[in-house]
């Protein structure tokens, strides 16, 4: 388990990857393509999976002030460009020795992308190698990101997803081509060795 030395109050530095600015009302996952490529490579997951999940999670504005206000109204709300809930983040934090806090997700999109990639890596480890053919491995991982690990494993065995998970999967499939185009156009070289 790799520990990280960054203090919770400092932005995460992923090898010189700059954190794109958050613009109220102008959030576009494409702004994070470089962060996605770097975090996916570091975590050993598919950059296409990470970018497509970010597109699926782009249904609300990702601005630190708006997220603070939303949490005041709804304390259990998800944070960051990856919309990660506190319980999920705490699992990722413990598993990977992260020094940052859950609240840091809202202020540091590079860290939020990295946490999402680590979570997808953890989901991949828990997904059986054999699963029903109706879903690709990446589709099951995306469903796990949305519906949780236990539900992901049930879907892998053939249990049909409920309406919300089916909607998430439809959006995931629809965004995949856009995510692939964004990554192909990214000036950063594609990582090697990603799952």
Largest sheet: none
Return the string of H and E elements.
HHHHHHHHH
Which range best describes the helical content: under 10%, 10-25%, 25-40%, 40-55%, 55-70% or over 70%?
40-55%
Task: Report Rg.
Answer: 16 Å
Average pLDDT rating: 82
> What sort of overall outline do the alpha carbons produce when their principal axes are compared?
globular
Residue fraction in strands:
under 5%
Total number of beta strands: 0
Helix and strand content put the structural class at mainly alpha
> Number of helical segments?
9
Low-confidence parts lasting 5 or more residues at pLDDT below 50? 1-12, 190-195
Question: What's the structural blueprint in terms of helices and strands?
Answer:
Elements: H1 33-43, H2 47-56, H3 64-73, H4 86-96, H5 104-107, H6 109-126, H7 137-147, H8 149-157, H9 163-185
Structure, described:
The chain is mainly α and 195 residues long. It is 55% helix and 0% strand. The chain has helices at residues 33-43, 47-56, 64-73, 86-96, 104-107, 109-126, 137-147, 149-157, 163-185. Helix 2 (47-56) packs across helix 9. It is globular and about 40 Å long.
Features:
about 200 residues, mainly alpha, about 55% helix, globular, disordered N terminus
């Amino acid at each position: 388990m790799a520990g990280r030395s960054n203090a919770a109050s400092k932005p995460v530095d992923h090898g010189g990857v700059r954190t794109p600015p958050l613009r109220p009302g102008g959030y576009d996952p494409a702004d994070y393509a470089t962060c996605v490529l770097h975090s996916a490579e570091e975590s050993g997951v598919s950059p296409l999976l990470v970018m497509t999940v970010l597109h699926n999670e782009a249904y609300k504005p990702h601005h630190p002030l708006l997220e603070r206000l939303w949490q005041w109204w709804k304390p259990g709300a998800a944070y960051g460009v990856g919309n990660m809930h506190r319980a999920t983040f705490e699992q990722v934090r413990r598993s990977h020795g992260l020094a940052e806090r859950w609240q840091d997700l809202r202020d540091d999109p590079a860290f939020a992308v990295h946490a999402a990639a680590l979570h997808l890596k953890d989901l991949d480890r828990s997904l059986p190698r054999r699963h029903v053919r109706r879903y690709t491995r990446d589709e099951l991982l995306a469903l796990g990101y949305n519906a949780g690990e236990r539900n992901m494993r049930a879907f892998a065995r053939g249990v049909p997803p409920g309406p919300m998970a089916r909607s998430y999967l439809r959006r995931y499939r629809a965004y995949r081509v856009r995510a692939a185009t964004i990554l192909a156009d990214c000036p950063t070289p594609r990582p090697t060795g990603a799952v």
